Amino acid sequence: MKLAVIEGDGIGREVIPEAVKVLDAFGLDIEKVPLELGYARWEKTGTAMSGKDLKTIKRCDAVLFGAITTVPDPNYKSVLLTIRKELNLYANIRPIKPLPGVIGITGRSDFNLVIVRENTEGLYSGIEEVGPDISWTKRIITRKGSERIAACACKLAKKRKNKLTIVHKSNVLKSDKLFLDVCRQTASAHGIDYSDMLVDSMAYSLMMHPEKYDVIVTTNLFGDILSDMCAALVGSLGLVPSANIGEKYAFFEPVHGSAPDIAGKGIANPIATILCVKMLLEWMGETRSQVIDDAIAEVLQKKIITPDLGAKSSTIEVGNAVAEYVKNSLMQE
Ligand code: NAD
User: Which tens digit of pLDDT belongs to each residue from 111-129?
Assistant: First the structure.
């Protein structure tokens, strides 16, 4: 197994080393291929990611990724969007699950949901023109893209509560009618109990009644926004992992970005990225991945907690404590 490890920019450079410590604690035969990509490299060299880097990534089986700063410069091409397209990582799976003892903005912990975000189309098509008086971006919805993301969400729903919510804005965006119709047809064909919601009322409903939802399928931009919003439900953006899955490759990254406001201070919460390691292990079929949940529960209970959750521990202290627990537990098995 070959794993590309991309720290990226800002806090990506702080959280990835902690997640790698936890991965190493499993003692698996994984060849790690470090790659320096992103905005810092673009500033130094004028290239954020070369064709050679992309080939190296394609020779790996999976990617562990921190975060990259994306600037609104027309000459700067988003590394992340390029990788998602090139590797055909069409499904972005974002579990929103409360952690023991951590209460989010609404004060509730009676929910456990997953956002399945279409990852290659919608408003992230990259087909756009920027002008002095008019700028536009093409929003692409295809039958094929909608079918495969709907099928992915249905498979996940089957393993969970057989329940799916399709989130769209088809009353205004005519392109979403295709997405909605295809998702409905796919859910029917899979025998899934489904309903649909307009994205604006969904945002409200998720804040008021997150317990009503299980698997949510939606388009690219809506999934991006709803998942950051749902991070407030679990208490911090530093707690939400994600997996980008395609036919051949898998790419694991926290939902958060490079957080320039806290970068370099050693206080970023590494738990989202450590949970990405858990998702990577599950994707590999490693049955011991559950020990990561136990380790995080123990570390939170001991109040080894970063400032986003109200305490003073550092990124490294949290990473060390989780890795230590994992190592000790696995030794006892
Ligand atoms: P952000 O997610 O980086 O930060 C939003 C807020 O959450 C900040 O206050 C930050 O301090 C906090 N936060 C985020 N992660 C945290 C963590 N692990 N621990 C504690 N607090 C955390 O979003 P932003 O500030 O809007 O974006 C910064 C840059 O990151 C932008 O250039 C954006 O384009 C980029 N970005 C990259 C990715 C990615 O690479 N996957 C995702 C989102 C944003």
Answer: 999 999 999 999 998 899 9
